């Protein structure tokens, strides 16, 4: 459909950054495409489905930790803070924090404006006393938050172990940017998935129903949908591996046979067994997490975990 529109002389609707990342990522060795491109509409729906899978423990585990931790967070952080959530998406965890902390202002930050406006509407209806100030921005860089909350101390919220999708160097840069954005006297509540038995980790990223496989494969489908491309989808399979050296789950798309295709007129040849690296999900033990936080300019002051020690929530101060 899209290709037809392009052939009919319409401008391409594809994001130029997507095109550039796909072409550069497939030309380099090892081949890799950044995980941020998973999240088109279909990818976001599949991710929501992942969070309900029996094998995918992080979402429900973090939610249960938040139920216990948030009243304590409210006590430590004190009254009168503005809550600033990074990458708010359609988070179901936010109401747990907002109910406990009862802030006067909530600033959800997300790069996707549509998603942001929708989830802001839902939250504003749920918390009628709360001033919701949605902020459409890329939070990887320091941000100038709304002037109205300039003098209000902030409580940053970054759940979901999304920090784990960055290599440690990037994670440290992000933590520094958050510190700069949140300003003097800020606190940060952040979720991180812990290192555990690969027999638990791998199925969480390669579930029996194949939802994570569909999430990974959707990237190839998106390339065919949005770019002028003919990637033979059936030639690839989803692969999730635990990289113990780097303490991370890696997702790849592995060619099952030699495959030749073109994207935007450029030819690609991928040999059987070669992979396209699509995601890293780093896991952090308690000490690793504390070192990471300190490297990013934050002093950890409290850690909560679940009884099985699957996931941790950290409260840190600037
Ligand atoms: C968004 N992020 C924290 C998820 C994770 O667990 O790394 C993304 C994901 N990829 C496959 N399953 C879930």
UniProtKB/TrEMBL annotation:
Pfam families: Methyltransf_33
Keywords annotated in UniProt: Methyltransferase, Transferase
The keyword Transferase appears for this protein: yes
Biological processes, Gene Ontology terms: methylation
UniProt domain Histidine-specific methyltransferase SAM-dependent: residue ranges: 18-317
Keyword Transferase carried by entry: yes
InterPro entries to which the protein is assigned, alphabetical: EgtD, EgtD_Methyltrsf_superfamily, MeTrfase_dom, MeTrfase_EgtD-like, SAM-dependent_MTases_sf
Sample GO molecular function, one term: methyltransferase activity
Lineage top rank: taxon: Bacteria
PANTHER family xref list: ERGOTHIONEINE BIOSYNTHESIS PROTEIN 1
Descriptive protein name: Dimethylhistidine N-methyltransferase
